[in-house]
Specification:
single chain; alpha+beta; two-stranded parallel sheet; 6 helices
């Protein structure tokens, strides 16, 4: 199960973006090529890239429910207060043997008076 072609071809990714604009271009390329049946190797390197991690944290922070903690009780502020290198090390170490924690289950009211379930993952699971 090495680099055998799946679909039309297999492409090894060289992660070469150093800012959010470069990451967006990289994501657009992945989207376009995957629609053509291209498969990729090297995605993990893109996922643990510092730009990807910072962008993920900024996206989470800007969401309406970002201050809501998951089952571990940790809020996004905990990760924002960490030293940059410490945060990157934590996230990269979690990737090596990633197992998501269970989502916190809450029920939110609907307009018809009933409630619908909502799963709230931990902040670390959201980042990853």
């Amino acid at each position: 199960m090495g680099d055998e072609p799946r679909g039309d071809s297999l492409v090894h990714l060289n992660v070469r973006f150093s800012n959010e604009t470069g990451l967006k271009g990289f994501q657009d390329l992945l989207y376009a090529k995957s629609g053509q049946g291209v498969s990729f190797t090297g995605l993990l390197e893109a996922m643990v890239n510092e730009v990807t991690i910072v962008t993920a944290i900024h996206n989470i922070k800007s969401n309406k429910g970002s201050k809501t903690a998951g089952v571990d009780g940790a809020k996004v502020d905990r990760y924002l207060q960490m030293l940059r290198e410490e945060l990157f090390l934590l996230i990269r170490s979690v990737f090596s043997n990633y197992r998501p924690k269970p989502a916190k289950r809450v029920y939110i009211p609907k307009s018809n008076g009933k409630k619908r379930p909502l799963g709230i993952p931990t902040v670390l699971d959201r980042i990853i």
